[in-house]
Amino acid sequence: MKQKVMRSLMVSCLKATELIEKKSLMPLSWTEKIKLKLHLSLCDLCVHYQHQSKVIDEWLQADETDTDNSTSDNTSLKERILKVLPLRE
Question: Where are the domains of the chain?
Answer without folding.
Answer: 2-84
